[in-house]
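Sample 3 of the quickstart, ligand zinc ion:
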Amino acid sequence: MIDNEVRYSAEQVQLIEHFLERENATGNDWGNEEFSEIKGTIKNHYKVEQGYKCPYCAVVYPVTHGMVWDIEHIVAKDKKVQFMFEPRNLCVACKDCNGAKSSKEVLVNPTRVRFPTRSEDYNIIHPHFDDYHEHINAITPGQFYRPLTEKGEFTIVTCRLLRFYGVVQREQPEQEINDLARVLLNAEGAARGLIEDELVRRIMAKRGDN
Ligand SMILES: [Zn+2]
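Result:
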């Protein structure tokens, strides 16, 4: 869990306020030249604050140049432009998790207008509000993930954490396992336990093949 959110300078706060007053502000404005300095502030802060660890796959990439890291909007900037610079809506994530998560919906209630500040407002493991290990057992980060809660399952599917098996074993991602993880997300009761066991069995079998 991230303890310290990014702090903006007085000039940066002013820039953000002016931006949010624009009637035509959209998520696409993130690419504007005017925000390059503030993006540097955000990225440098969270890389260090997170100990160079991705909040979704839990892999540590101890790289000081910026190439492996994306600034991650937990609620996508295309969905809620008003949260684009909210410090608790920001962190860094590895490019693969950020790309897989893309603009997918993570809010329990997508119609929320004000920034949701509680863990239970989110379907995904929230880097600022959740303890990762309560939701996913990453036995070996980058290899084997076992969901402990629905949030854990949602995060595994949404960020395609099972992509790692595909990378290790073959060129193509392991579609079958990813599909099964998706089914697990919608399963209830006894079926849930059966599917989870099957998922873990298949993952272990894949590892054994290698
Ligand atoms: Zn990652």
